[in-house]
Amino acid sequence: MLKNKKNKIILSGGGTGGPVVPLIFIYRNLKNDFDFLFVGSYKGIEKKIIEPEGIRYQSIFAGKFRRYFSFKNFFDLFKIFIAFWQALFLILKEKPGLVISAGGFVSVPLVFASWILRVPVLIHQQDVVPGLANKLMAPFSKIITITFEKSVKAYGEKARLIGNIGVELNCFNNINKNDIYDKYGLNSKLPLVLVLGGGTGSLFINNLIFSTVKELSLLSNVFHISGEAGRDLNDLLDLKNYIKVGFLEHQELIKLMLVSDLVISRCGLSTLTEISFLEKSSILIPMPNSHQEYNAQEFEKKNAAIVLEEKSLNPALFLQKIKSVLLDEDFRKKISINSSGVIKNGNQEMIAIVKSFF
Questions:
Q1: Domains in the chain, ordered, with CATH?
Q2: How many CB atoms lie within 10 A of CB 218?
Q3: Which terminal Cβ of the chain has fewer Cβ within 10 Å, N or C?
Q4: pTM of the entire structure?
């Protein structure tokens, strides 16, 4: 361990918003006991997500390990080399007592440098199937907390099955549905459909919404978070009962989710955790040929959501499935209640594990 160790924790993760949300929870619960620094990439969405939290932020280069041939791999090897030295000097300067990552390639050089300088590392594995970044970091970590029992085999003795960490309802006791509806000018006589495409957005989901929103907006309010500009190739004119934004701060997103009647989403584990913890009915569209399909299966096998395959999905079927949820209150209640049993709440166990390092 480095000399003069301070009660400081470095948080790291990114690429998408998914790895950032659990780290925000850790910060909120321990910010009075520890100093924090967040290490992320220069251009990733993570900086935008954590800015409202007031966490000190440090950028380093982020290179991606692709499992297929690409000329970008050669450039990224150079980035990874630079990032390692950035991380090494950063740890020497900051002298943290612990480094925590919830995934993302920006964390890999930081974890390597931490291991060399004997700073303990805690990895949090959200998805059912471990990603490459977490696999690379696992040998250099002390503990790997996991959400699902299926992940135990991937990590062996280092694995701690705790569930996932995320939103706590007691932080939103004063949320009033009428206030949220008034704030955004929503129609109080209609239910609310919240559409998410993940931290960066989903072009496929965006196009589904654009193909169906005229009819859908007659049945419900539609609040559509479209993501990055490149994922939003259509610009609708003013449409009654439809609101589109590119990005929404996490706290505001949770408020909308709390009062929503249906959530339509990709299947990143942070969003699925919020759906589970808040007991929301949902239509899930996992990204094809990815870890998201395994995440969605956890909900599907417990009848906790409607799961649709992108390859067989069209606007007519999409609209039909939405109607089947909105127009059947009993079914909607059933899947929302079932959703609460999919992901265990590991909030308190995670806090206890973090404190055990000091």
A1: 8-164+344-356 (3.40.50.2000), 169-339 (3.40.50.2000)
A2: 10
A3: N
A4: 0.90
